[in-house]
Amino acid sequence: MAAEPPLWKRVHSVTGPTPRARHGHRAAAIRELIVVFGGGNEGISDELHVYNTVSRQWFLPAVRGDIPPGCAAHGFACEGTRIVVFGGMVEFGKYSSSIYELQASRWLWKKLKPRPPKSAPPPCPRLGHSFTLHGSKCYLFGGLANDSEDPNGNVPRYLDDFYELELQTQSGVKGWSIPETKGVGPCPRESHTCVVYSGSAGSSPKLYIFGGMCGQRLADLWQLDIETMTWSLPRTTGPCPLPRSLHSSNVIGNQMYLFGGWVPAEEWDGKANALGPEWICTSSMSVLNLDTMTWSSLNPEVPQQSGSGLRSAGVEDEEGGRWPKARAGHCAVTIATRLYIWSGRDGYRKNWNYQVCCKDLWYLETEKPSSPAAVFLVKSTINMLHVAWRPLPAAECYLLQLQPVTHSLSPPTSGSDLPNTSAPPPSTGQEVKRLQESVQSKSETARDIGCADGSCEGENGSSLQERPVAECREDICSAADQNRGHFRPVTDVCAAESAPAVNGKPFDQVRCVSMKEQNGASQQHREQDASSQQTKSCEDSTWFNVGIFRTLFSEVTHYYLPSEGGVTNRISDSEWKIPGPHSFEAQEKQELAPGVSYRFRVAGLNSCGQGDFSPVSEFKTCQPGFPGAPSAVKITKASDTVHITWEPPTSLSGKILEYSMYLAVRKTRGSNVVKPEELGFIRIYRGTKTSCTVSATHLSNAHIDCSARPAVVFRIAAKNEQGYGPATQIRWLQDTSKLKSSGSQPDSSFTEDEPKATRG
Predict the structure, then answer these.
(1) 185, burial (CB in 10 Å: exposed 0-12, middle 13-18, buried 19+)
(2) Which residues contact 489 (CB under 8 A, 6 or more apart)?
(3) What element of type H or E holds 267?
(4) How many angstroms separate the CA atoms of 390 and 388, rounded?
């Protein structure tokens, strides 16, 4: 019996230069990006196309270097932000054995020349092979060679050779080798699939090869134990997929998802054809549990066939389809728990020479979204908190909730020299507009600004989507406890508590909040230090809905009070349907109040249900009369110093008396691992000017914050007659490759051409 139909969704609203439909192309995933290269339809493509799954936008990066010729049915392996390409067809009857590397952090192509095996020739030119990465090695198996001596001829030869290609760290390759294997391996084939599965703890990683073509379609499953290099035919249970080639196989968790491809036509009509063997495309999907080796079919094996009216179960018309059309030669990649497929040919009977390439993009939802990172603050006003959150690859929209908090306040402290904050890192005053634009596209990439040619600015930057990813982000923090004049530095998932003094003034250290969700509803009280102020929640188990958002931000001015049935902290998974943006508007609204702290949490929603909530963040609305946060912060690098400039707050609320700039430092030495309570801030500037220079001595003591992308953290705030207002936080990104070799010290020679991408 077939399992429940999976949750396919077609992507309709895309922007940017959409690539033309094709087959024989390859794709790889780099964070939220799908990188597509090669393939053809009336000619082989040599362009590199990139699709941002968060912003739903295609773009053509400005590639440079040793740009390879267009190819089809090539090998395409991705490690981090580099992609290695091997072989493929460059024109009819002409196959390649060249290797190219793409550094996606710079969109730089480089042709590689690995050394050959010690006692054998290197791999011959081929197409339709598998090229699978595990660790620092790419495993090449099979393919189709052309043995014709006539450049216009084609004498196909199926291959069963097996090679290892060892990669160098970060860039380059070492050489080919032919590993010694045990047991009988797969027969020669091309257009098969190969995936790697590391298994549970303690088990050895394995390669799995399925199907392919060798004069006829194949349906065999082969296993290679990578540790022992032993081939075997694993015993499986459940309905095995039909023989096929030009299909796709991808691993998500412990499941291998097999989709599409060519299957023999006689499997369907049971009739022999006088013209010889025929085959047709299928849209069937089978899933193999790689722990239990059990096959399951997620939809009936019913292919799409021209003229017969036979269609895959669940397939509707092109606009309202619930299932991708039958296809072969498509590309498929996984991003988090989603499986994306794009294009491919949807031809019916090959002998009829009736083949059309699909141009549609689909994704398969396999699980609920993961837990997001903590909500962060963009801007705080008297009666509004502009909050934002990081995108989740598998979320279609987000549920935002808040909880009012009352504090037992101590008497106001006047004359304090230290500014106040109560927020995690993210964007700032001047960056609000840029953040809104980037959040509209739902792209984290678009919020990141690269540091090039010695400068790091909050506004300017070349084609943000074309480089994954660098940033110099300004982060605004809320005006918390302004009546006390305390500076409360807080990171993404941390809350501040009182700590030792700086220059004789109160100073707060950072301590992480650990909020454990139970059934998505209740949460654990955070432990308070004996010297810190006692915090009381209005009702710890009660959270109020702010709304459902398809964006990554919200200017929160109100929340919704519970209906008579009470507040629902988690939307029920029974008969799940994604709620709309107006789901709570029938409930009574409660406006935000000045000088009140609010806890925030967010959860991702998709077709599978609601994911877990994020860690809890706490922000406070401003008190009247305090200055706003400095804006338009810019960082310029000198040889061994950093020059920082900024603009006065847009809302002055009186004359600015002075500015203070702080730098995050480690309070203990001798270890690169810094506990939250060991993190502190020191003041590196105090004055009336809107600029300062950070000395090399200060930079050498800076803490590299690795809670997100490695960065040096600065904070700046303005003071008027009332005291300090909210602080702007700036994260100056550091080059991860240089940090490893420099003992986690700030990198003053960071350039745009160096790899800056990290995994989210």
Answers:
(1) middle
(2) 421, 477, 496, 508, 510, 662, 664, 679, 681, 715, 727
(3) helix 266-269
(4) 7
Residue 107: partners with Cβ closer than 8 Å, 6 or more residues away: 48, 61, 62, 63, 64, 466, 467
Q: Are 52 and 361 in contact (CB under 8 A)?
A: no
Q: On the CB side of 488, how many CA atoms lie within 13 Å of its CA?
A: 29
Tokens of 528: 């308070």
Give the residue among 105, 277, 209 at the shortest CA–CA distance from 754.
105
User: What's the pLDDT score for residue 726?
Assistant: 82
Beta-sheet pairing, 711-720 with 48-52: unpaired
Among candidate residues 166, 168, 162, 81, the one with its CA nearest the CA of residue 129: 162
Round to whole Å and give the CA distance between 33 and 56: 10
Given a contact cutoff of 8 angstroms between Cβ atoms, the answer to whether 416 and 725 are in contact is no
681-688 CB contacts, 8 Å cutoff, 24+ apart: 681/487, 681/489, 681/502, 681/507, 681/715, 682/502, 683/418, 683/502, 683/503, 685/659, 685/660, 685/661, 686/417, 686/658, 686/659, 686/660, 686/661, 687/658, 687/659, 688/656, 688/657, 688/658, 688/659
In degrees, rounded to 5, the angle at the alpha carbon of residue 473 between the alpha carbons of residues 470 and 476 is 160
Q: How far is CA 123 from the centre of its chain?
A: 34
CA neighbor of 558 nearest in space, from 583, 578, 520, 585: 585
- In angstroms, the CA 199 to CA 193 distance is 19
Check if the beta carbon of residue 707 is closer than 8 Å to that of residue 617. Answer: no
Residue with tokens 């189709």: 144
d(CA 635, CA 457): 6
**Residue type, position 484, single letter:** R
Joined tokens for residue 286: 């089978």
CA distance 84 to 89: 16
DSSP-derived 3-state class of residue 329: coil
pTM to 2 decimal places: 0.74
Question: Are 601 and 616 in contact, with CB atoms under 8 Å apart?
Answer: yes
In whole angstroms, what is the distance from residue 206 CA to residue 132 CA? 11
Q: How many residues does the chain have?
A: 760
Q: What is the pLDDT at residue 460?
A: 28
How far is the CA of 554 from the CAs of 56, 403, 440, in angstroms?
20, 15, 11
Dump strand ranges (E) for 193-319. 193-197, 206-213, 217-225, 230-232, 248-252, 255-259, 262-264, 279-281, 285-289, 294-297
Which tens digit of pLDDT belongs to each residue from 147-157? 998 878 889 99
Start-end of H helices in 509-639: none
Helix (H, G, I), strand (E, B) or coil at 194: strand
How many CA atoms lie within 13 Å of 507's alpha carbon, on the beta-carbon side? 16
Residue of 655, 649, 749 whose CA lies nearest to 696? 749
The CA distance from 127 to 155, in Å, is 13
pLDDT mean values, one per 10 residues, the chain (760 residues): 67 93 96 96 93 95 97 97 97 94 96 95 97 97 94 90 95 95 97 94 91 95 97 97 97 97 70 63 94 87 40 43 90 96 78 73 95 88 90 94 73 40 35 35 32 31 32 36 31 27 28 29 34 40 91 95 64 64 83 93 94 93 85 88 90 85 77 55 94 93 82 91 86 68 44 31
Extract the tokens encoding 469.
């990813």
* Rounded Cα distance, 639 and 455, in Å: 12
CA distances from 11 to 64, 224, 364, 578 (A): 30, 36, 11, 16
The verdict on whether omega for the bond into residue 469 sits within 30 degrees of 0, i.e. cis, is yes
Instruction: Give the pLDDT of residue 467.
Output: 34
**Residue 734 to residue 739: CA distance in whole angstroms:** 7
Asked if residue 89 lies in contact with residue 46, where contact means CB atoms within 8 angstroms, the answer is no
Query: What pLDDT is recorded for position 289?
Result: 97
C-alpha to C-alpha distances, 79 to 84, 97, 489, nearest whole angstrom:
8, 20, 36
Counting Cα atoms < 13 Å in the Cβ hemisphere of 191 gives: 25
